[in-house]
User: What shape does this take?
Amino acid sequence: MSLPGCALTYAEHAGAQVTCLKAAPRTSTAAQQAAPAATAGICYYQNGPYGSAAMYNGWRACVTGQGDGYVPPNLNDQASAWVSGCTDGVWFSNQPWTDPAWNFPSYSTGNFPWGAVGNDTLSSFHLNRAC
Assistant: This one.
C-alpha cells in the first residue's frame, strides 16, 4: 500500500506495516492502493521469484512519482523481484543513466536478472511518468 504524500515506502516484510521513507514532492500525489504498484510506479522486493511464497519473507519498497530514484543504502544491491504499475522505466545496477541498465514495461512483473541488471544489483531506477 502506498501512503498519501509519500514517494518511497518501506515494509520490513511484504505483508507488514508500511512506513514512509521519503516524502513526495508537492506536485506528486500518491493514491491509496489495495495491491502493490496498482497505482504506484514500482515496487521491488528483497526475495523472489515474483509471486512465490519466498517473496513475502523479505522487505518490499514502493516508489511513486517521476524521474530518477535511488534504492535506499540499507536495501542497495538486494532486490530480487519487482512489479511496475502505471509507468514504464529503467532499472540500473549503478547510478542512473549508466550501464548496466534495462527497460521495464508498465503493468508488469519480473525477477532479477532482468536484462543486463543482475540479481541483487539494483541501485537506482528511472520512472517515466507519475501515476
Observations:
- The beta strands are 6-11, 18-23, 42-45, 60-63, 67-70, 81-84, 89-92, 101-104, 109-111, 124-127.
- The mean pLDDT is 83.
- DSSP finds no helices and ten strands in the chain.
- The first strand starts at residue 6 and ends at 11.
